Every structure is written in structure tokens, then in C-alpha cells.
């Protein structure tokens, strides 16, 4: 009876663990489902080192079990003394050589891949200037948000990183305040963003993997950097090359045309924004904000401040009391607005859209909804 209960407990524990492990396999978030060259190499190293570890642990466990079973007093008698092997030459050689061989098997691919992944030769030309043929993103990590500047285009975004698929995307990483770490689990990393020096590496995003992940990967800060470290997330929008080029073109066109608010609320909101928020936030795509994220394409974002679902209600909550959402963030207390003013600013920010496609999707969704409603009426 007791035995079967122990077994039941064991199976219950295992099924709970299995459920947890099932969560490890998301296409857009997991190092165990690599989505590009670097991620695949890192995954290979994980599998290689775990296999070697399992081999060692397994061998030791089995040998130990055999020894215990074979040397039971009931079997060999009270007076039995096993064969003494201290200082045995052959054994000493065997158990020194095997670990050395295992370490060599582990070391060669690890060292080779580590150096290969740090190879950013294609990023600069022979004259030492940034290579025009390569996509280069200069990343700056702030407490608790990310800024992405496109080297050749001068385009600046924050929180949402847009990259082309099936080619090397180079990153120059630095930290603005404290040390952070840049990590896109599916694609690879992590690499520290230091305050005193730039770290460079590249990532590749496979197009088919990006499509499986709905073209959206998750990025994270992987170095404890303050109270809101765990909320320092960003999104990676991985697009085919033509769509990526289109996005860059939209961003630049936006710079030329500028953006004027549509609705009357938004117009008033724009004025309030210019007075109270412009000191830290920029709404032109080529201008890094002074102390806060660039908000040029804020209306296209997936999330607000990297953590809240993107809608007007949450935006109002954020502007009203950012501290309750991201403790220690650097926007808290920087302005004084009443509820009415906050609603108008929010209306203005929701209108800041650059991605023309996303507008079409919105329109399409509305059209489909309208159609569905019509059908509903007929029945
Ligand atoms: C002192 C500088 C400062 C001022 C002034 C300021 N902000 Fe911010 N803002 C920040 C910082 C810093 C962040 C990033 C916070 C974080 O994520 O940790 C931020 C984040 C945001 C975000 C989220 C951005 C994103 O990328 O998702 C919005 C929206 C925003 N601010 C709106 C406003 C509005 C509206 C005002 C004016 C009423 C304003 N801010 C005034 C510094 C400022
Ligand atoms: Cu951080």
C-alpha cells in the first residue's frame, strides 16, 4: 500500500515536471528551438556538453550500483576483504586519460565556435569603415529599455528591433548607465553591453523559423541591472529583406513628411507632448531621444514600455503612474498632468504609426469583422 502511494507520488511529480518542461519549447523564446546560425551552434554545444555529462554521471552511477550489489555482506560474508587496488598503475592511467579525452572533445568545438561567433570581419571594410553591404545595428541599453540605431540609415527605434532574415545582422552593443546584457534566446547571445567599451557580434534569423514564430522573437536583458531588470524586454520583428527595406524607407519618408495629429484630441495632445515630454522623447526617426525611448513609431508597437499590452487604456495607466508598472524607471515624476491632459497625450501617441502595412492589416481586420457581422444578420 505504502509502496503504491510512493509510486503515485513519483508519477505525479514527474507529470508536473513534464508540464513545466513543455513550456520550454516556444518558437519565439527558446534557446532549445534555435532560429538561426548562432543559436544552432549554441544549441549544439548545449547538447554536446549535456551528453558528455550524462555519459560520465551514468557510468559512475552504474559502476557504483554494481559495486554495492556485488559486495553485499549477505553475499560475500563478514570476513571478506576486497582486492586492494590503491596505486594500481593501469587503473590510474585509465581514469586520468578518459576525463582528459572527454575534456578535449568538449574544448575543441567550444573554443572553435566561440571564436567563430566573435568574427565580425564583414562589419568593416579594409579601410576600417562600416561596411555598406552589412546591416549594422548600434544597440544602447538603458535602465530599463533598449535603443536601436541603424548604422547606415541613421534611423533610430526603441523597444522593437526590426531585422532582415537569412543574412548576418551585426550588433554593436553598449550600456548607457550600468552593465546590461543583450539576449535573443531563439537567435543567440547573450553578450554584455558595457559602459566602457563596445562589444560586437552578429546573429542570423532564418526566414522559415521566423515565419513559424509569427515573425516575432522575444529579447531580454540578461544581466541584473536594477529593480525593473526582469521587465527589460524587447521584441524582434524579423522580416524578409524586401519588407525590411520597405520599413526603413517608411521610416525615412516619415522623417521628411513629419507627422501631424489627426483628431482634435490628438492635436491638443501633441501640444502637451511638446511641452512636457519632448525633453526626453523624440518623435523623429533619426533623432535618439535625450533620456527616453524614441516614440516615432509608438503606434506600431507590440507592447508599452516592453511590458504592457499595447492599447490606449494601458498607455494612460503608464503615463499616470509609471512607477507602479516599472519600479525605478527614469520617467517617474518628470511632469505634472491632469487626467484630461493625459488622455489627450495618449490619443496623440496612439496615432504615431509608420508601418503602412500594419495600417492595412487594421483595415483588413475591420473589413472582415464588418463582413462577419453582415453574415450574422442574415442568419
Ligand atoms: C525625464 C525624462 C522623461 C520625460 C519628461 C518623459 N518620459 Fe516617457 N519615458 C522616459 C523613460 C526613461 C522611459 C523608459 C522607461 C522604461 O521602460 O524603463 C519612458 C517611457 C515612455 C513610454 C513607453 C515607451 C515605449 O517604448 O514603450 C511612453 C509611452 C512615454 N514614456 C510617454 C511619455 C509621455 C506622454 C511623457 C510626457 C507626459 C513622457 N513620457 C515624459 C523618460 C521620460
Ligand atoms: Cu538591464
UniProtKB/TrEMBL annotation:
An example molecular function term from Gene Ontology annotations: heme binding
Claim: Transmembrane is one of the keywords in the record: yes
First-tier enzyme category under EC: translocase
Gene Ontology biological process terms in this record: ATP synthesis coupled electron transport
Cited function: Subunits I and II form the functional core of the enzyme complex. Electrons originating in cytochrome c are transferred via heme a and Cu(A) to the binuclear center formed by heme a3 and Cu(B).
Protein name in UniProt: Cytochrome c oxidase subunit 2
Cofactor(s) listed in the protein's UniProt record: Cu cation
Record-linked Gene3D superfamilies: 1.10.287.90, Cupredoxins - blue copper proteins
Intracellular or extracellular location(s): Cell membrane; Membrane
Keyword Lipid metabolism in record: no
Domain Cytochrome oxidase subunit II transmembrane region profile, first and last residues per copy: 23-121
Entry note: cofactor: Binds a copper A center.
InterPro entries: CcO_II (IPR045187), CcO_II-like_C (IPR002429), Copper_CuA (IPR001505), Cupredoxin (IPR008972), Cyt_c-like_dom (IPR009056), Cyt_c-like_dom_sf (IPR036909), Cyt_c_oxidase_su2 (IPR014222), Cyt_c_oxidase_su2_TM_dom (IPR011759)
Catalytic function, reaction form: 4 Fe(II)-[cytochrome c] + O2 + 8 H(+)(in) = 4 Fe(III)-[cytochrome c] + 2 H2O + 4 H(+)(out)
Cytochrome oxidase subunit II copper A binding domain ranges (all copies): 132-250
Entry keywords, A to Z: Copper, Electron transport, Heme, Iron, Membrane, Metal-binding, Respiratory chain, Translocase, Transmembrane, Transmembrane helix, Transport
E.C. number: 7.1.1.9
Amino acid at each position: 500500500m505504502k509502496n503504491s502511494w510512493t509510486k503515485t507520488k513519483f508519477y505525479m511529480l514527474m507529470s508536473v515536471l513534464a508540464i513545466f518542461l513543455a513550456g520550454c519549447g516556444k518558437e519565439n523564446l527558446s534557446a532549445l528551438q534555435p532560429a538561426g546560425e548562432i543559436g544552432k551552434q549554441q544549441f549544439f554545444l548545449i547538447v554536446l556538453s549535456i551528453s558528455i555529462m550524462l555519459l560520465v554521471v551514468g557510468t559512475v552511477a552504474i559502476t557504483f550500483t554494481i559495486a554495492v550489489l556485488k559486495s553485499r555482506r549477505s553475499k560475500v560474508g563478514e570476513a571478506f576483504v576486497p582486492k586492494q587496488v590503491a596505486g594500481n598503475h593501469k587503473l590510474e592511467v585509465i581514469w586520468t586519460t578518459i576525463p582528459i579525452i572527454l575534456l578535449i572533445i568538449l574544448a575543441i568545438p567550444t573554443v572553435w565556435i566561440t571564436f567563430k561567433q566573435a568574427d565580425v570581419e564583414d562589419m568593416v571594410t579594409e579601410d576600417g569603415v562600416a561596411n555598406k553591404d552589412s546591416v549594422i545595428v548600434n544597440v544602447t541599453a538603458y535602465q530599463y529599455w533598449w535603443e536601436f540605431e541603424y548604422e547606415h540609415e541613421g534611423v533610430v527605434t526603441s523597444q522593437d528591433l526590426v531585422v532582415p532574415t537569412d543574412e548576418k545582422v551585426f550588433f554593436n552593443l553598449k550600456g548607457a548607465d550600468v552593465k546590461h546584457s543583450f539576449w535573443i534566446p531563439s537567435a543567440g547571445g547573450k553578450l554584455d553591453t558595457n559602459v566602457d567599451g563596445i562589444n560586437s557580434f552578429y546573429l542570423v534569423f532564418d526566414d522559415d523559423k521566423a515565419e513559424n514564430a509569427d515573425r516575432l522573437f522575444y529579447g531580454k536583458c540578461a544581466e541584473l541591472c536594477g529593480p525593473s531588470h526582469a521587465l527589460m524586454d524587447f521584441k524582434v520583428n524579423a522580416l524578409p529583406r524586401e519588407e525590411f527595406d520597405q520599413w526603413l524607407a517608411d521610416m525615412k519618408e516619415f522623417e521628411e513628411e513629419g507627422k501631424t495629429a489627426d483628431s482634435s484630441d490628438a492635436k491638443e495632445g501633441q501640444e502637451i507632448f511638446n511641452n512636457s515630454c519632448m525633453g526626453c522623447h523624440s518623435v523623429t526617426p533619426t533623432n535618439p531621444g535625450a533620456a527616453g525611448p524614441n516614440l516615432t513609431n509608438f503606434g506600431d508597437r507590440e507592447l508599452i514600455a516592453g511590458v504592457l499590452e499595447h492599447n490606449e487604456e494601458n498607455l494612460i495607466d503608464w503615463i499616470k503612474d509609471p512607477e507602479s508598472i516599472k519600479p525605478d524607471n527614469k520617467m517617474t515624476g518628470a511632469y505634472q498632468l491632469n487626467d484630461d491632459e493625459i488622455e489627450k497625450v495618449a490619443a496623440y501617441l496612439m496615432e504615431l504609426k509608420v508601418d503602412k502595412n500594419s495600417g492595412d492589416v487594421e483595415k483588413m481586420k475591420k473589413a472582415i469583422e464588418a463582413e462577419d457581422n453582415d453574415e450574422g444578420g442574415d442568419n
